[in-house]
Amino acid sequence: FKVLGNQIETHRKKLRNVEQIHRNL
């Protein structure tokens, strides 16, 4: 369960990075 939780956190971070990139564009 801990590993799955880490995957969710990393996925959320990736989504945040993508949102920031789109805002910059």
Automatic annotation (TrEMBL):
Superkingdom per UniProt: Eukaryota
Designated name of the protein: MADS-box protein deficiens 1
